[in-house]
Amino acid sequence: MKRKIQIQHACKSIAFASILSFSIATSPSHATDLLDKSPPSSEPVLADPSKWNEWSYGNSTLDFHGYYRIGYGWDRDGEAMPAFQAPGSLAKYRLGNEDFQGGEIVIDYRYWLDGVPRLGGPENSRFIQLQGRWEDFESIQNLDELYLEFDNDHTKEMFIRFGNFLGDGTHAWFGRRFYDRKDIHMIDHFWLNVAQGSDYGGGIEGIKLDGDKTLDIAAFYAYDESVEQETGDNIDSYMFDVRMRNLMIVPDGKLTLIGQVGYRPEYEASATGVDPDPQDEFGFGFGAYHELANVMGGRMNTGFMFRQGAALVQNDFNSRAPTEDQGYDLSEAFSVEFNNDLVIEPNEDWSLQWASVARYEDFGAADPTAGLGESILWLSTGIRPVYYLTDNFNIAFESGIDWIDNDRLGVSGHVWKNTIALQLQKQRGYFERPVIRAFATYASWDDDLKGEVGGINFDDDTSGIVYGIQLESWW
Fold it and tell me: In angstroms, how far is CA 170 from the centroid of its own chain?
């Protein structure tokens, strides 16, 4: 009975959010007719905003952005669907394979000292920016616990930026911030994410170099509370990040070079953890990413990243340095990754994304639980073509295969996931949102991975089928 009520609640939420989302997407560019009424000439003019989520008043602008996905899926027995992911891989092919739902909102306030650029002010107008981001995501089995509060746990960004104060295009900032994250959308893999999960940071971006080249410098601090309750000590970590941008290698291409230094001070370990207490650890990282525009109506991004020691991060969404309790020896640990992300839209009838990842991580020590090997090799490739039957209706198909050699668990093999989805969306375009989709997903995996894929729903199987509905939008 509880699951039935929960499913009904999820379906009602999807229906309501669908109506709201499409109403917003098709609403006029200004919020209400009241904005068309001119106030007395002695007051600042309330400008007609270019979008429903952008407001201007005098020299102030307030932008409202966000993302959400809401949906529900079932397995063959009517239980809440799991996700199919290879053990040890950092991501999975996400279409019809997401068992976490939720969303985030972003509020961006700016005061333009020299006039609002989009309303006729200079492009290099100085500004003071205050931005906050709040989010919450929950398993579909716990949708009744999904809620968003403006507290510290849900606050993912809160920073101030002084734009163009140090020169045109050069900004100084301080606070908690997502910092130039790079991801592959189809697998939700944030392979470059140095700041998410940090507690605060600061830096200068857009420092002018030769020609169009610029330099960004930033530093971040984060603490891990995993041993605090027992020892009263935090596990601190620091990261220094430098990026040189806009190096031209080929026409329509831009190359960014990355350098990083990490530091994890000594701390008192828990009684059940490692012995002796971990000492000071340093590390470094370097990499690059190349962004190529005008590729068959789309673009291609290619990335490389090497990290060592305290410059490693815990996962895609947590930039804190790993800990010895997690099985790392930071004096020996390292990771290296190559990836490629291609999106093309050659004509109005279809579009396609193709992603590939090759990643190797050596933990420097055996897994503390299984006591087996020290490394994980993850190889992945997949495609998602979308065929448009009409401007608002299309068929999406996603096929992705992950091969994992996980020495820490002593298993290896592939996970092959295939999904077909019928999609209703605002207009043609791979990244156009909102979209409502009904999907069916089939996955299979090697015998060696039995019990490691599909959770308890498929712990005795080497294949599985799930189906469901989902609404996704960003603005």
Answer: 25
Whichever domain contains 317, its CATH number is 2.40.170.10
- Rounded Cα distance, 373 and 362, in Å: 9
**191 is a domain residue:** yes
Q: Give the tokens for residue 274.
A: 């490692």
398 within a domain of the structure (yes/no): yes
Tokens 């019809």 correspond to 96
450 part of a folded domain: no
Q: What digits encode the pLDDT tens for the residues 140-149?
A: 888 888 888 8
Tokens of 53: 């989520």
Length of the chain, in residues: 475
Contacts of residue 1, defined as CB under 8 A and 6 or more positions apart, other chains included, come to none
In a domain, 434, yes or no: no
Residues 344-389: tens digit of each pLDDT: 999 999 999 999 999 999 999 887 777 788 999 999 999 999 999 9
pTM check: above 0.85: yes
Number of other residues whose CB lies within 10 A of the CB of residue 295:
16
Domain count, the chain: 1
Domain that holds residue 370: 80-419
- Alpha-carbon distance 450 to 403, whole Å? 14
